[in-house]
């Protein structure tokens, strides 16, 4: 006889239930998210402040921003330009350390879900999220990303929508969504910045010295000679 605690106890019923579930999913209309892109984080603050004054202030939302604005780890947040690298090292558990704040991300989403259930939910700003993260000892950076799943409005800088690498890393899918670009005449500058890279003369010289070593020691000479020529021409 079939067991009663798994799907094999009634195969036909399981198939029927699965079919009903698929039908329900199919009947449910697709509701697009609104991705609102701005040039600066300061403009997002202005927009969310205005949102609070409208009847849509209770709509689920989130704000995507860099670790520079949302990291609350005392060591990482006080570091210079390598916050991303330090964060990744903590998440990977390198040097035997991990981020305690990352493991508390769910506390933020639960807080806003509870507020929504009691009709106390209000539009918030990055500073509000960071303050809540510190209070709950939960990472504001990853909390904002988790809140994107249930959000109707997602605020973010232009490059989060324009740069394909950032879109991929932030798991942003714009297909079928609504995209609003505030002050869109600034898009050209943002697009140029997304595909541009800055390098100093000292970095070029250091790269050329390393490539000289590779070529002189016949290490993949065919690949490194053209790279050395590029460094020399740029210098």
From TrEMBL:
Q: Which UniProt keywords apply?
A: ATP-binding, Hydrolase, Nucleotide-binding
Task: Output the GO biological process annotations, alphabetical, semicolon-separated.
Answer: double-strand break repair involved in meiotic recombination; nucleotide-excision repair
**Mind telling me which InterPro entries this protein's record contains?**
DinG/Rad3-like (IPR045028), Helic_SF1/SF2_ATP-bd_DinG/Rad3 (IPR014013), Helicase-like_DEXD_c2 (IPR006554), P-loop_NTPase (IPR027417), RAD3-like_helicase_DEAD (IPR010614)
Q: Where is the composition biased (Polar residues)?
A: 1-11
Q: Which Gene Ontology cellular component annotation is one that this UniProt entry carries?
A: nucleus
Query: Which intervals hold domain Helicase ATP-binding?
Result: 1-231
Q: Which Pfam families match?
A: DEAD_2
Q: Where is this region: Disordered?
A: 1-26
The Gene Ontology terms for molecular function here are:
ATP binding; DNA binding; DNA helicase activity; hydrolase activity, acting on acid anhydrides, in phosphorus-containing anhydrides
Compositional bias segments (type: Basic and acidic residues): 12-26
Its protein name is FANCJ protein
Source organism of this protein record? Ceyx cyanopectus
């Amino acid at each position: 006889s079939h067991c009663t605690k798994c799907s094999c106890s009634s195969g036909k019923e399981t198939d029927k239930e699965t079919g009903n579930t698929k039908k329900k999913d199919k009947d449910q209309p697709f509701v697009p998210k609104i991705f609102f892109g701005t040039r600066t984080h300061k403009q997002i603050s202005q927009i969310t402040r205005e949102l609070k004054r409208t009847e849509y202030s209770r709509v689920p939302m989130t704000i995507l921003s860099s670790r520079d604005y949302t990291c609350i780890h005392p060591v990482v947040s006080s570091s210079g330009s390598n916050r991303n690298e330090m964060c990744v090292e903590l998440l990977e558990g390198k040097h035997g350390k991990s981020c305690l704040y990352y493991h508390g991300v769910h506390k933020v989403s639960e807080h806003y879900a509870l507020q929504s259930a009691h009709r106390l939910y209000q539009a918030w700003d990055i500073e509000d999220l960071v303050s809540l993260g510190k209070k709950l000892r939960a990472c504001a950076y990853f909390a904002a990303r988790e809140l994107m799943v249930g959000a109707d409005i997602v605020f973010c800088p232009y490059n989060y929508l324009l740069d394909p690498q950032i879109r991929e890393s932030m798991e942003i899918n714009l297909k079928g969504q609504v995209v609003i670009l505030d002050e869109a005449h600034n898009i050209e500058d943002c697009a140029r910045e997304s595909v541009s890279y800055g390098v100093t003369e000292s970095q070029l010289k250091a790269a050329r010295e390393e490539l000289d070593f590779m070529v002189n020691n016949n290490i993949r000479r065919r690949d490194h000679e053209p790279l050395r020529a590029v460094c020399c021409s740029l210098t």
